[in-house]
Amino acid sequence: MNWKFTLPRIGAALIALIGISMLIFAIARVMPGDPARIALGPNATEEQVATLRAERHLDAALPVQYWEFVKALSRGDLGRSLYTNRPVTTDIAQFLPATLELVLVSVIIMVVVGLPLGALSAHFRGRFPDHLGRLIALLGICTPAFVWGVILQLVFGYFYPIFPIEGRLLESTPVPPTVTGFYLIDTLLSGNLSAFGDALHHLILPATALALAGIGQTARLTRSNMIEVYAKPYVEMASAYGFRPWRIATRYAFRPAFIPTLTILGLECAAMLGNAFLVEKVFGWPGISRYGVEVIIRKDLDAIVGTVLIIAAAFLIMNILVDVLVSIINPRIRLSQRKS
Amino acid sequence: MTREPVLTIRDLHLAFGRWGRKSNVLHGISLHVGAGEKVALVGESGSGKSVTARLAMGLLQESRATHATGSIRFDGIEAVKGGPEIARRRGNRVAMIFQDPTSALNPTFKIRGQFREVLRSAEPRLSDAEADRRAEAALAEVSIPDPARALDSYAFQLSGGMNQRVMIAMALANRPELLIADEPGTALDVTVQAQTLKLMGDLAATRGTAVLLISHNLGVVREFADRVYVIYRGRMVEHATTKQLFAAPRHPYTQALLSAIPKISGGGLPDLPERSPDFERPLIVHEGCGEPAEVV
Ligand SMILES: Nc1ncnc2c1ncn2[C@@H]1O[C@H](COP(=O)(O)OP(=O)(O)OP(=O)(O)O)[C@@H](O)[C@H]1O
Ligand SMILES: [Mg+2]
């Protein structure tokens, strides 16, 4: 790990996170509606509401409230959800892994399908496989993930019922003991292979629905970057020096084209975290995005701030990872770091 | 006894574009290069030198927007339509040196990986160790001081002159019969250019490599070439031995070219004051430079 390169990025991410926390803290509180009243329901008395407001420092000035929040945060406490009536950290620990697992599997599908599709398109540019590939990519992009969700459910859950359309596991499958919260990993750790199969089976449709737009973007991006690289002198030189076309497509033109692609892929992954909400809704997936929307509707202050912060953190971590990855595969950046 | 030339181009026509928007770039180019010969192709910018070279390498694939007719004979095959036959011979029987060596090397792979690929175009089963051994030998041949270090570098870490040598070493590694150099090293300084030319001259002399040099530089051509072709707007206008051409140019275009440069210059092609209808006159071939004999 190159700390000279990574540390400034981590620092910048932390500053961004502090900014985001202030912003979301203020926004959550200026939204219309009294959170205490919403939490307690219409039948609660004024006294009960007032007690709750006092308990949660809701009548204090905004900076005072923020200070209380920071003090709690330093103890690892994100407050309590008014909706689930549990610590927000407990909720996040439960819901976040489900989303991360979904997004991660989607990213894998996106990369494994999108990159070769784009590379093939570029290799056959202007010919039939290219036209087909671009059509698929365009369809992927212009159809929202939740529509894909519904289509996939209809086709593979209803007409050809080969995939489950809801939840993370069958009723009959025991939930694996929580280690990472990723069912794919936890089932393997508990040595239950059939549960692993079941978890994977449940993941395929929602992950595909979430991945399709990204596949389209990845393919288009890879295609255009590859075509740009194909016009470079070093690719003509590779042909002139007898490199086989297949080696050029999969290696000598692919690597330089992949570097700019990777940067955008990082953004695409981050967008998936947001898109995950609709897919989670369609597939009854107990993830953090769905939780986030529920708590916003209920004006569940601590839960909103906690969820937004955790998603923002995931986003920022993803960005740092991409930067580090780019610096690893781009020799120019890597070597200039070593010198400094 | 005459042998068949290594490369024979006859009546080569080339057009780009589709349907009504065709633009004709070559109008019947013929040339030949024999084993051990150093032949130069000169002409102003846009006259069609590079496309001729790329066609000879099979690098301009026939497509809906690229139409080549005529004949390019090399190594017993017909290469005018590109295709796998000529592709198999690239990097192997025929090689090319590009103008700007640094941009002709891949910035994301070390020289080592690229060199291995070059060697494997001739021998696909070559082991890494053997490939590296040969690469080091090839680099030493072009006087690169520390071949192992050069192999472990990226092109952007080496100087332009170094890259030029690396590219030449790659071009020569598989001992090609024909070497095409499209304005080699014009992006570099004069000493590197001179070294490159010397290396190519040695190759022609010692290995019998046929060399086709494309150049802007009449001084260089005079020093280097045995024979010269002058191309003007996609047409061959004069073909002579170097001596004949510089002593007594006969075509009006060539005369204008030569008279426009100061006597001792080594500089690039001069800007001609104006285009003359005279320049379109048909090809002039000097004595002793006729059509190559067919194989007996
Ligand atoms: N792929 C292409 N599509 C369309 N036109 C092209 C293409 N390649 C070359 N041309 C045109 O063909 C003509 C000849 O180009 P070429 O590169 O062979 O010239 P050149 O003699 O090498 O010039 P220079 O000395 O500047 O390198 C030019 O007018 C150029 O615009
Ligand atoms: Mg040219």
TrEMBL record, chain A:
Q: Where in the cell is it found?
A: Cell membrane
Its keywords, alphabetically, are: Cell membrane, Membrane, Transmembrane, Transmembrane helix, Transport
Gene3D superfamilies, A to Z: MetI-like (1.10.3720.10)
Indicate how the chain sits in the lipid bilayer.
Multi-pass membrane protein
* Domain ABC transmembrane type-1 span(s) in chain numbering: 96-326
What InterPro entries does its record include? BPD_transp_1_N, MetI-like, MetI-like_sf
Q: Does the keyword Repeat apply?
A: no
Where along the sequence do coiled-coil regions lie?
Answer: none
| Membrane-spanning ranges | 12-31, 102-124, 136-160, 199-216, 257-278, 303-329
Source taxon at top rank: Bacteria
- In Pfam terms, one family for this protein is BPD_transp_1_N
GO molecular function annotation: dipeptide transmembrane transporter activity
What do the Gene Ontology cellular component annotations say? Answer: plasma membrane
Of which family is this protein a member?
Answer: Belongs to the binding-protein-dependent transport system permease family.
Q: Which PANTHER family match?
A: DIPEPTIDE TRANSPORT SYSTEM PERMEASE PROTEIN DPPB-RELATED (PTHR43163:SF6)
Protein name, please? Peptide ABC transporter
Q: Which organism is it from?
A: Xaviernesmea rhizosphaerae
The organism's lineage is: Bacteria, Pseudomonadati, Pseudomonadota, Alphaproteobacteria, Hyphomicrobiales
Automatic annotation (TrEMBL), chain B:
Which residue range or ranges hold the ABC transporter domain? 7-258
**UniProt organism field:** Xaviernesmea rhizosphaerae
Keyword vocabulary terms for this entry: ATP-binding, Cell membrane, Membrane, Nucleotide-binding, Transport
Q: Kindly give the membrane topology term recorded for this protein.
A: Peripheral membrane protein
Q: Which InterPro entries match?
A: AAA+_ATPase, ABC_Ni/Peptide_Import, ABC_transporter-like_ATP-bd, Oligopep_ABC_C, P-loop_NTPase
Q: Know the name of this protein?
A: Dipeptide/oligopeptide/nickel ABC transporter ATP-binding protein
Please give the Gene Ontology molecular function terms for this protein.
ATP binding; ATP hydrolysis activity
Gene Ontology terms describing biological process:
peptide transport
The UniProt entry, under CDD domains, shows: ABC_NikE_OppD_transporters
Q: Where are the transmembrane segments?
A: none
**What is one term from the GO cellular component aspect held by the record?**
plasma membrane
| Subcellular location(s) of the protein | Cell inner membrane
Q: Which PANTHER family match?
A: DIPEPTIDE TRANSPORT ATP-BINDING PROTEIN DPPD, OLIGOPEPTIDE TRANSPORT ATP-BINDING PROTEIN APPD
Q: What is its main location?
A: membrane
Give the protein family. Answer: Belongs to the ABC transporter superfamily.
Check the record and name the SUPFAM superfamilies matching this protein: P-loop containing nucleoside triphosphate hydrolases (SSF52540)
Q: Does the keyword Cytoplasm apply?
A: no
